[in-house]
Design a protein that fits this description.
Elements lengths: L11 H16 L2 E4 L33 H9 L3 H12 L10 H34 L2 E6 L4 E6 L8 E5 L7 E7 L5 E5 L1 H4 L4 E5 L19 E5 L10 E4 L5 E4 L4 E2 L4 E3 L3 E8 L5 H4 L10 H34 L14 H15 L8 H17 L14 E2 L13 E4 L6 E12 L2 E3 L2 H11 L27 H9 L17 H4 L5 H17 L6 H11 L4 E4 L19 H28 L5 H4 L24 E4 L3 H12 L3 E5 L3 E5 L5 E10 L7 E7 L6 E7 L1 H8 L9 H19 L3 E10 L1 H15 L5 H12 L4 E12 L3 H10 L3 E5 L4 H10 L8 E5 L4 H20 L10 E6 H7 L5 H9 L3 E5 L3 H15 L3 E5 L5 H6 L2 E5 L6 H4 L3 E3 L4 H39 L12 H11 L2 H9 L5 H6 L15 H25 L7 H23 L5 H24 L12 H6 L2 H28 L3 H9 L3 H15 L54
Parallel strand pairs: 15-27, 15-31, 27-30, 28-29, 29-30, 31-32, 32-33
Antiparallel strand pairs: 1-8, 2-3, 2-4, 4-13, 5-11, 5-13, 6-7, 6-12, 8-9, 9-10, 14-33, 16-17, 16-26, 18-19, 20-21, 21-22, 22-23, 23-24, 24-25, 25-26
GO biological process, one term: phospholipid translocation
EC number: 7.6.2.1
Main location: membrane
């Protein structure tokens, strides 16, 4: 044990008492923790915090002793396993057994053993991971050694003092008590927890130690009171009670979470509050998600039908046995004398028949489904088209059992920001004091960046140029120079960036010259006036630079965020290579000359000017953080959101450079080069209720307490009152109304809007408010509410400074993806927190909305109005639907509804009407919605319409929606990985959703559906051979096939082909599925696996079993062959029939298919020949010795096999030929396209889509006529009837691609 601690013997009563005390201690809402140092060396039983979890983690489920019982217990949670074990046990009862008891155990034992091996391997990997983590080194303070000693993570206990150094992972949840940073700051990276790579600041608990004498763990005699462990990564309630009873509040800002990495900090010391499985990271480690797919639910119903069918067949056998016994006049010599009555014998025969016909329930189906899904997932995650080169990330499958649901989606609910858009915020426009500055030059730069220059290699210079920190008022042509320089950049998103939100697209802003002159005049007038009161224009940009949580780091302290591979597109054409070299040379010369001209025109702010002494207005230079002395070009900003980064870079472009940030100070350099060092009095962080954040600072010039606030426009405007409020002056009213007008125009352009405001707070008000603030921060109960109340108390009567418009650009190929999804019959909804105007603009941009759409806009102030609006709109839509004249002329309907109206529409009395209206709309945009409303909408549509739903998002606010949907998809974008961690599948771009659903979703569903149907068919066809034989053996439960061969038949001979079928089969190629999205509709609704297809396959199995039984029966009738000579041809015919049946169903043959199919036949003949040659007394009294060898020498055997197989498969073959010739399905027509030459196929798809308005056109409903054929060799006919987008068909729409070829079999 650690530090020489030894274990002493303790009585059982003491152990029980400690266990009860520990249980009570762990269940308390509050925990009181003290230092372990005074108790060092006394043994674990003497530690005051011994009742809490140690830091050892154990994620394994088994041990060597418990593996077999626990694993069997888990496997027996499956009713199918219990069923087969019960039958195996039943077979040990002599009066009902059908096989040798030991033989009956083999199938279920094989299945249980294979599953146990899989579970054991997975658990062993978990054990290796646990051992590696538990033995990771760390530093724990020892009172005996008076220093930090190297220990292991497993040695850490609650109450220990742990030291972490730069780039080290935190071993437990630590309350930060000391940091090497003089300002008490520790920078951490939480990528291991939430995927966010931007730095976060953690501050030491104030008031515990002073920096002059440092922190001494032995002197720590306070009590740490914290809440019970929970999984909330963003909240932590705690206070430290000093010996004098003074309480110091602490929250999540002082907690280092286990799994975080310390960055940019030499070392930090923390007090362990949670360890091991009680840490927040471990409480969030829930492992893989487990869901039941729609196909699996349908499968369970069909298994129940098979159970009913089995019982019916067994009942027939029982009654038949009774009738046969009653028909006997005496006891036949071949029957053992039995004292049982005929009724009892027939009752026993019922159970014997269950044992004989047990394989009617497919024992290996569930295991086969798991193997097929693993194979499908392998191909999905290794699809190169789903790999994102920029982020070096590929598709992730986090839920392993719902891949087939991807092929049945009816509704998609999507977030907007970061999902449809890049989440790369670009500063576009601003309004200050009612005056709008359009930044036309910057708009030109962004337009140039959008122009494709595919063959030009762009080299980005990440070091910020001087034009971003200073600008020339005299040089009017700087804009054109900058524009020409920026025009050399193309797809800036592909540039490698080391810091989040720091691509050139986001960081470079060309200032508006009118605003530049306005700022210059403001600075000049402030200097001449001598009062040094800040001008509103200066205040606006100070607010942009100060009001945020951006972390400033030096170039030497940066971390690499992601490694982006270089351009992979290269050419081997010498002419193209020479052309590229010429272009690169001219581009380099032009960039160099541009840089020289720019530097000659722009003023340079050198370091000497930065280091000037304090001026007469009291701007302190000595107290300024060290980073302020560095050149701004060496600074890098790490923001938690792209909005903050965009505003900071915009302020930087105008010369307001954020130089450094500590918990107590913020340094900003003005355009003149003067540095202002603001004292931070408090930060009112952003929350989803207030929709804003504020920073309270002491101005270094005026010494006033100033509150800078930024937030959503409606949240800020409410704090000003309405634009025409009585208490506002006339000037303020004009500013507010003009700004609101600008905000509305920004929203119509699709820009994200923020309002900027300020407030001067008197000293008396501040002191009074500070008392309440400290009390709220030290509270445990209702801490969040109290803290928010203090923020709301301060954020009143604000003065509006202006507003900003930030562009969030659409991701690549979003319009094409949304159009394809709509053509596939999927309804796409957007649930966003943005304004309706912004959402509508994005809707048109990504083609969710079309110009000719009928747009219903619902924005109601009360429930009465909402009810009336719902009724009127619903009546209007119904009237159009019922009018036959409007079938082909009615425009598509789209609905836009805001969050307040949605709250009323989701009320119990209105939700049915809302769903009725929404289901008639092609697209629904829900604006200003909260995360909770997103999940409520998804649940409502899923439950009311009984449809398959998919939710896709990229942020923490999308987690509820993702978890509420049948399938959750997370996008690993700019807002961390919380959405990914809560999702079933993870992608890096919205465009990947197209192939994921239309191709992989379709393949996964059709493969698995057809495999399950085939499994049922295979088992029913085989077991019925035994059933038909009972009619000729008195229903005695006798089998005409050797028991071992029967077992081998299902376990080996016919088990691999259906698995191969479920993994590799492709009914249509990916190119055709992407080119004709309508093919996806075949999986929606009931899909291919439905009641009809299931029972047709069962009836076909009955027919084929009749043929396979009676053809050999009639061939050997009245002969003297023995029972196994009679049964062996049936077994062989059944194998050929089952495998050839599968061959008819296979749509794409590959080498793997041929190997598996021929290998199964070869394995059957090899094993059967070997078994017949060595088995002399394997199955007494009848033995299969040399039976198969004799059969293969008999011509009758080959004749029986040929005739039986042909007759058995002829109806299915004929049905496929007639169906594919008379009424070909869309999938068959898709396969016809696959048979074309690729160029011809692509031309056909382009012409067809252009004719019906797809692809580059609009998705409309057409009465189609025959367009020109793409080639004379391949004429193409179009049938007029296509599906409406609002309908979900089964299989009744047509492409009608016909070629001059013979009928094609599918």
């Amino acid at each position: 044990m650690r530090d020489g601690r030894t274990m002493s013997w303790r009585s059982p009563l003491a152990l029980v008492r400690d266990a009860l005390h520990g249980q009570r201690a762990r269940e308390r809402e509050l925990r009181s923790l003290v230092s372990n140092l005074p108790y060092e060396g006394l043994g674990k039983g003497k530690l005051p915090n011994r009742f809490f979890s140690s830091n050892t983690i154990k994620t394994t489920k088994y041990s060597l002793l418990t593996f077999i019982p626990i694993n069997l217990f888990e496997q027996f949670h499956r009713l199918a396993n219990i069923y087969f074990v019960g039958l195996a046990i039943l077979n040990f009862i002599p009066v009902v057994n059908a096989f040798q008891p030991e033989v009956a155990l083999i199938p279920i034992c094989v299945i249980l053993a294979l599953t146990a091996l899989k579970d054991a391997w997975e658990d062993f990997r978990r054990y290796q991971s646990d051992r590696k983590v538990n033995n990771t080194p760390c530093s724990i303070y020892s009172r005996r050694e008076k220093q930090f000693l190297e220990r292991r993570w497993k040695d850490v206990q609650v109450g220990d003092f742990v030291k972490v150094v730069c780039n080290e992972i935190v071993p437990a949840d630590l309350l930060l008590l000391c940091s090497s940073d003089p300002n008490g700051v520790c920078h951490i990276e939480t990528a291991n927890l939430d995927g966010e790579t931007n730095l976060k600041q953690r501050t030491v608990v104030s008031g515990l130690c002073t920096m002059d004498r440092g922190f001494e763990p032995e002197s720590f005699n306070s009590i740490v009171v914290c809440e019970k462990p929970n999984d909330n990564l963003n909240h932590f309630k705690c206070f430290v009670e000093k010996p004098n009873k003074e309480k110091l509040g602490a929250g999540i800002e002082s907690l280092l979470l286990r799994g975080c990495t310390v960055r940019n900090t030499d070392h930090a010391v923390g007090f362990v509050v949670y360890a091991g499985h009680e840490t927040k990271s471990m409480l969030n480690n829930s492992g893989s998600r487990s869901k039941r797919s729609k196909l699996e639910r349908k499968l369970n119903i069909d298994v129940f039908f098979c159970v009913i069918l089995l019982f019916a067949m067994c009942l027939v056998g029982s009654v038949g046995h009774y009738i046969w016994l009653e028909s006997l006049t005496g006891s036949p010599p071949y029957l053992t004398p039995d004292s049982r009555s005929n009724s009892l014998a027939s009752f026993h025969m019922f159970f014997t028949m269950i044992i004989l016909l047990q394989i009617l329930i497919p024992i290996s189906l569930y295991l086969s489904i798991e193997l097929v899904k693993i194979g499908q997932i392998f191909f999905i995650i290794n699809d190169v088209d789903l790999y994102d080169e920029e982020t070096d990330s590929r598709m992730q499958c986090r839920a392993l059992n719902i891949t087939e649901d991807l092929g049945q989606i009816d509704y998609i609910f999507s977030d907007k920001t970061g999902t449809l858009t890049e989440n790369k915020m670009v500063f576009r426009r601003c309004s200050i004091m009612g005056t709008e500055f359009p930044h036309k030059e910057n708009a030109i730069r962004l337009a140039v960046l959008d122009e494709p220059e595919a063959e030009e290699e762009i080299i980005f210079n990440h070091r910020l140029q001087s034009a971003q920190t200073g600008w020339s008022l005299e040089a009017e042509d700087v804009t054109s120079v900058d524009t020409s320089r920026h025009s050399r950049s193309k797809v800036v998103g592909m540039a490698q960036s080391d810091v989040a939100f720091s691509s050139p697209l986001e960081t470079e802003v060309i200032p508006d010259q009118n605003l530049v002159r306005q700022i210059s005049r403001a600075e000049s007038s402030s200097r001449r006036g001598g009062s040094r009161r800040m001008d509103p224009y200066l205040d606006f940009f100070l607010a942009l630079a100060i009001c945020n949580t951006v972390v400033v780091s030096m170039a030497t302290a940066r971390r690499r965020r992601a490694c982006v591979s270089s351009h992979s597109s290269q050419t081997n054409n010498p002419l193209e290579i020479l052309s590229n070299l010429v272009k690169k040379a001219s581009s380099f010369i032009q960039r160099k000359s541009t840089r020289i001209r720019t530097q000659s025109q722009d003023p340079v702010i050198d370091s000497v000017r930065m280091e000037s002494t304090a001026d007469t207005n009291g701007v302190s230079q000595s107290d300024r953080p060290a980073a302020a002395a560095a050149g701004s070009e060496d600074l890098y900003y790490e923001a938690e959101s792209p909005d903050e980064a965009a505003l900071v870079y915009a302020a930087r472009a105008y010369g307001f450079v954020l130089l450094a940030r500590t918990p107590n100070n913020v340094a900003v350099r003005l355009p003149s080069g003067q540095v202002l060092d603001f004292e931070v009095l408090d930060t009112l962080t952003f929350d989803s209720n207030r929709k804003r954040m504020s920073v309270l600072v002491r101005h270094p010039i005026t010494k006033e307490c100033v509150l800078y606030t930024k937030g959503a426009d409606y949240a800020i405007m409410e704090l000003l009152g309405t634009p025409y409020a009585e208490h506002l002056s006339e000037n303020q009213k004009n500013i507010a109304s003009d700004t609101q007008h600008h905000l509305d125009s920004y929203a119509k352009e699709g820009l994200r809007t923020l309002c900027i405001a300020k407030k001067v707070v008197s000293e008396d008000v501040y002191r009074s408010w500070l008392v309440n603030r400290k009390s709220a921060l030290a509270a445990i109960d209702n801490k969040e509410e109290l803290v928010m109340d203090t923020a709301v108390q301060m954020e009143t009567n604000l003065t509006l400074l202006g507003a900003t418009g930030i562009e969030d650009r659409l991701q690549e190929s979003v319009p094409d993806t949304t159009v394809a999804l709509r053509e596939a019959g999927i309804h796409v909804w957007v649930l966003t927190g943005d304004k309706p105007e912004t959402a509508v603009n994005i809707g048109y941009a990504c083609r969710l909305l079309e110009e000719e759409d009928l747009l219903i806009n619902m924005s109601c102030k009360n429930k009465v109005t909402c009810t009336s609006s719902l009724d009127c709109n619903l009546e209007e839509v119904r009237r159009y639907d019922e009018d036959l004249l409007n079938v082909d002329t009615m425009p598509s309907i789209s609905l836009v509804i805001d969050g307040h109206t949605l709250t009323m529409a989701l009320s119990p009395d209105l939700r049915d009407r809302f769903v009725d209206l929404a289901k008639r709309c092609r697209t629904v945009l829900c604006c200003r919605v909260t995360p909770l409303q997103k999940s409520e909408v998804v649940k409502l549509i899923r439950e009311k319409l009984k449809v398959m739903t998919l939710a896709v998002g990229d942020g923490a606010n999308d987690v509820n929606m993702i978890q509420a949907a049948d399938v959750g998809v997370g996008i690993s974008g700019q807002e961390g990985m919380q959405a990914v961690m809560a999702s079933d599948f993870a992608i890096s771009r919205f465009k990947h959703l197209k192939k994921l659903l239309l191709v992989h979703g379709h393949w996964c569903y059709t493969r698995l559906a057809n495999m399950i149907i085939y499994f049922f068919y295979k088992n029913v066809a085989y077991v019925n051979l035994l059933f038909w034989y009972q009619f000729y053996c008195g229903f005695t439960g006798t089998a005409m096939i050797d028991y071992w061969l029967m077992i081998f038949f299902n376990l080996f001979f016919t088990s691999t082909p259906p698995i191969m079928f479920g993994i590799f089969d492709k009914d249509v190629s990916a190119e055709v599925l992407l080119g004709v999205p309508e093919l996806y509709r075949t999986g929606q609704g009931k899909g291919e696996y439905n009641f009809l297809t299931f029972w047709i396959s069962i009836l076909d199995a009955f027919y084929q079993s009749l043929v396979c039984f009676f053809v050999p029966y009639w061939a050997y009738k009245d002969s003297d062959v023995d029972i196994f000579t009679f049964g062996t041809p049936m077994n062989t015919v059944s194998l050929f029939t089952i495998l050839l049946h599968l061959s008819i169903e296979i749509k794409s043959w590959t080498v793997v298919h041929w190997i598996i199919m021929l290998g199964s036949v070869g394995l059957y003949f090899g094993v059967t020949l070997f078994y017949s040659a060595i088995c002399v007394t394997c199955n007494p009294p009848s033995n299969p010795y040399w039976i198969f060898e004799s059969q293969m020498g008999d011509p009758m055997f080959y004749l029986i096999c040929t005739i039986s197989t042909v007759v058995a498969l002829l109806p299915r073959y004929t049905f496929h030929v007639l169906k594919n010739s008379i009424s070909p399905s869309p999938l068959l027509q898709g396969r016809e396209l696959d048979r074309m030459d690729p160029s011809t196929r692509d031309q056909w798809i382009r012409e067809w889509r252009g004719f019906r308005g797809g692809g580059g056109g609009q998705v409309k409903r057409y009465q189609q006529s025959t367009p020109p054929s793409p080639t004379q060799e391949t004429p193409v006919d179009f049938l007029p009837e296509f599906l409406n987008d609002d309908e979900i068909p089964d299989d009744d729409f047509s492409l009608n691609v016909t070629t001059h070829q013979s009928p094609v079999l599918t």
